[in-house]
Amino acid sequence: MSRRRRNRAMVPGSEHGLGLLKAHVMQNQGYAVNPERPDLVKYEVARTLGVPLQQGYNGHLSSEDAGRVGGPIGGAMVRELVRMAQQQMANQRPPGQ
């Protein structure tokens, strides 16, 4: 019997902010994103990659195909978070350093 896993943000209440980040990042990647439902961008990514992802149960989907969809989304979000952190650290340096 398989259990359905639900991904949750580690910080309670951060889901909205992560959704906004996903929408911003994926729009910059050239995808059409509904700001009200940024989670739906995965279907557009899947379509462009030729992965048969559909709403509902996707038990037929291989791990490789799932990674091909989630990888670009998560990777782009991580790159943007790193860029934001680097910029914040650069702005916090004392003058002359």
TrEMBL record:
Entry-linked InterPro entries: SASP_alpha/beta-type, SASP_sf_alpha/beta
Instruction: Name the Pfam families for this protein.
Output: SASP
Name of the protein this chain belongs to? Small, acid-soluble spore protein, alpha/beta type
